[in-house]
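quick one, 266 residues, struct below
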Amino acid sequence: MTQNRRDKRSARERLQEQRAKDEAQQKRKRALVAAGVVVVVLGAVGGISALIAAQNDDDDGAAKGPVVDPKGATGDQRVAIPTGAADAPATLTVYEDFRCPGCAGFEQGFRETINDLRDAGQLKVEYHLVRLIDGNMGGRGSLRAANAAACAQDAGKFTAYHDLLYQNQPREQDDAFADRGHLIELAGKVSGLDTPAFRACVNKGTHDSWVTKVDKAFEKSGHGATPTVLLDGKNVYGDQDDPLTPEKLRKEVAKAAEEKGGKKGG
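---
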């Protein structure tokens, strides 16, 4: 009997010890599972934070990559895209932003006159493509539209694509030009522009850093608004008391041609 009681006690003790071990093992498992959940959550949070940071970095307005000037870019820093005859008697300098409603208004009011004078060899136009609206309203449309226009310059299609962008300008608050696919779709309306080279240029942002260079030069120019329009270095568009009209522009260009012709004759 005594031995039986000892055996029974021993069995109970062994059972209790096993239960204690099982409970301890279960606690360890629960602890490991909880720790794993924490790691996953922290990892997810970290991933989300990294994603947000990457998005913010992508939207911080700082173009990445080397500065690649578009073909034919001119000026001290090669920040202007020239159109028209290099020896034209008058030069129109235009600082503009493809998201800027005022710039679209200028283009709509003066496009025909500028194209006529340029085609006649009387006027050279130098475009400075800035990104003022991106800074004021947020977004990337000014940058990406300017890059696409520079890509069109590489393809010899700048003027047609430039005019097309303004004819399809979205509302100022609508950053539709940030969509590279949309910019490529518009290029399909310009004969011969939608090529693999153009698409690659747009999608890679080949000229993004150049646009940033142009924008920084604009900040240092002393001109603080778009459009800013200079005729032979004189601001001719901002005076509300004596506004520029297409007729006045034609007269000023004709005057410049006469003066240049007189100097050559003398």
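The longest strand covers residues 90-96.
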